[in-house]
């Protein structure tokens, strides 16, 4: 028995309609893998909300490729490389084509990049991208660079260069202690601090150094006693989350008036409150933007809209920017194929809320501005707005472009 096929104009129109509907219903799945439990859960939740906001806004404006929506999947990294790799496999099994990560630390992100690269090699046509918004290990865009990985935050060397440039003009900083978390990033922050600050200020004395377990120290008093014994006036520390707030608390309790130089602690909830409660010490950190920064109308508008929708404070333009880069690359590639999207990301420039930023093709390092700023009391002049319900806010100390801070790279990338 022969089957009759409809070939009328009406049937053709129906087939076209079905095809269009299928296209409109297609989604591009993005997996979020960062800590959603444990001591750094507040960090993971902050980063998740920024990511969600951008994806919902992209979808509300039509998605990509005239109707393809981004779908966000959520996974708890538990701050573990093993748990994160299990989450990656679950994301792949659910059809994810990109993961957003970075808040779990450099060791976790490195493990994810390596696992994704192995998967991609074994499964051509089913590749997955790694979009790193916060892990700042220079090796990820250096010797360990990978075609599938893109870094959306200034790396450790770039951030320390900004801080070293600032310290160069601070003659009151004379004796520095290096106190850091005992993992790859903490060791790197100490290394670059000694190297770059030492180069900028050869007269500075490095009077001591210590590493401590990440996320497990409940009382920093013993560490601070050693700092005090060296007569240090400043601490270079890569601590973040509770490791930063507990350090500040212990110093306040002991009456130690210290300077702290950090990469991003001020953007994490609870840090400003901890500084205000300590009532002593100054925490200087560096980021692409800080709340209350002057002459940033685009970020101010985004922060206002974000607060209205989420009920939370906006803190990190780069995290909200990460899904927007992905969407722009999909549009540029006119495809959701991971290889084509990755190639489109290379040398892509986005007119972001902090100005034009470019994803450098040779190592997949985003070049974005960095602002050195200090958490300080509101004075109506340099600090006009309090934060976290306190009378402390952020004082701009110095600003640098991405190109000014850009480092050379020894990346030798293999491309498919």
What does this protein look like?
The protein folds into two domains: 15-154 and 297-368, Rossmann fold, CATH 3.40.50.2300; 157-287 and 369-404, 3-Layer(aba) Sandwich (Rossmann fold), CATH 3.40.50. It is globular. The strands form three sheets. A seven-stranded mixed sheet has the order 7-6-8-9-10-14-15, with helices on both faces. It contains 13 helices and 15 strands. Strand 9 (259-261), helix 9 (271-278) and strand 10 form a beta-alpha-beta unit. Mean pLDDT is 93; it is low at 1-24. Helix 2 packs across helix 11 (317-333) and helix 11 (317-333) crosses helix 12. By secondary structure, the chain is an alpha/beta fold.
Portion of residues within helices: 40-55%
What's the rounded overall pLDDT mean?
A: 93
**So what's the overall shape?**
globular
The radius of gyration computed from the alpha-carbon positions, rounded to a whole number of angstroms, is 23 Å
Number of strands: 15
| Terminal residue distance | 49 Å
- Helix and strand succession? HEHEHEHEEHEHEHEHEHEHHHEEEEEH
Instruction: Tell me the strand order in the biggest sheet.
Output: 7-6-8-9-10-14-15
Instruction: Name the CATH class of the largest domain.
Output: Alpha Beta
**What is the name of the CATH topology of the largest domain?**
Rossmann fold
Give the second-level CATH assignment, the architecture of the largest domain: 3-Layer(aba) Sandwich
Percentage of β-strand residues = 15-25%
CATH superfamily of the largest domain: Response regulator
Total of helices: 13
- Output the structural class: alpha/beta
Query: Sheet bearing the most strands, described?
Result: 7 strands, mixed
Number of domains: 2
Low-confidence stretches: 1-24
């Amino acid at each position: 028995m022969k089957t009759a096929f409809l070939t009328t104009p009406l049937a053709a129109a129906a087939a076209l309609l079905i095809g269009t509907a299928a296209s409109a219903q297609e989604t591009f799945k993005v997996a979020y893998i960062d800590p959603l439990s444990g001591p750094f859960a507040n960090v993971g939740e902050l980063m998740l909300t920024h990511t969600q906001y951008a994806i919902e806004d992209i979808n509300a404006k039509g998605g990509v490729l005239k109707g393809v929506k981004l779908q966000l999947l959520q996974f708890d990294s538990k701050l573990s490389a093993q748990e994160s790799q299990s989450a990656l496999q679950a994301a792949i099994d659910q059809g994810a084509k990109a993961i957003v990560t970075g808040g779990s630390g450099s060791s976790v992100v490195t493990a994810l990049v390596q696992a994704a690269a192995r998967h991609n090699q074994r499964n051509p046509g089913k590749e997955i991208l790694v979009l790193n918004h916060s892990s700042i290990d220079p090796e990820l865009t250096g010797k360990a660079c990978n075609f599938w990985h893109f870094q959306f935050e200034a790396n450790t060397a770039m951030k320390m260069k900004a801080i070293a440039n600032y310290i160069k003009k601070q003659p009151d900083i004379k004796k520095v202690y290096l106190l850091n978390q005992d993992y790859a990033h903490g060791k790197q922050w100490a290394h670059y601090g000694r190297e770059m600050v030492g180069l900028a200020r050869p007269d500075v004395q490095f009077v001591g150094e210590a590493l401590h377990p990440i996320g497990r120290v409940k009382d920093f008093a013993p560490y601070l006693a050693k700092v005090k014994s060296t007569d240090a006036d400043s601490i270079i520390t890569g601590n973040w989350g509770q490791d930063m707030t507990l350090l500040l608390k212990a110093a306040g309790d002991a009456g130690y008036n210290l300077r702290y130089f950090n990469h991003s602690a001020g953007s994490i909830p609870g840090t400003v409150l901890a500084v205000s409660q300590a009532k002593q010490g100054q925490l200087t950190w560096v980021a692409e933007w800080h709340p209350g920064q002057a002459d940033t109308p685009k970020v101010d508008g985004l922060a206002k809209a974000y607060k209205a929708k989420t009920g939370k404070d906006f803190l990190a333009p780069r995290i909200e920017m990460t899904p927007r880069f992905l969407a722009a690359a999909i549009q540029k590639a006119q495809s959701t194929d991971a290889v084509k999207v990755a190639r489109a990301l290379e040398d892509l420039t986005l007119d972001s809320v902090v100005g034009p930023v470019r994803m450098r093709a040779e190592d997949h390092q985003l070049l974005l501005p960095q602002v050195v700023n200090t958490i300080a009391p509101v004075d109506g002049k340099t600090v006009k707005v309090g934060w976290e319900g306190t009378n402390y806010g952020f004082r701009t100390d110095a600003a640098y472009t991405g190109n000014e801070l850009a480092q050379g790279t020894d990346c030798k990338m293999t491309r498919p």
